[in-house]
Write a structure and sequence with these properties.
Helix content is 94%, strand content 0%. By secondary structure, the protein is mainly α. The protein is rod-shaped and about 90 Å long.
């Protein structure tokens, strides 16, 4: 019974669990921010490439 109690006290004093949870929360937040940034920039990049692709043929036929 004493060993179980000692293990329980040691487990409750250990900081490994909360640290792992904090890292998991940080990774989740980084993923959410990354997805939001990629989504926001994705349409702008697509528009830029489309404008460039339409401008190149007209520039080559003009010369």
């Amino acid at each position: 019974m004493n060993t179980l109690r000692e293990k329980l006290v040691k487990f409750l004093k250990s900081e490994d669990g909360p640290t792992a949870v904090e890292y998991a929360v940080m990774v989740a937040l980084i993923i959410v921010v990354s997805i939001a940034a990629i989504t926001a920039l994705g349409s702008k990049v697509s528009t830029t490439f489309t404008n460039t692709a339409t401008a190149i043929p007209s520039a080559t036929t003009a010369s």
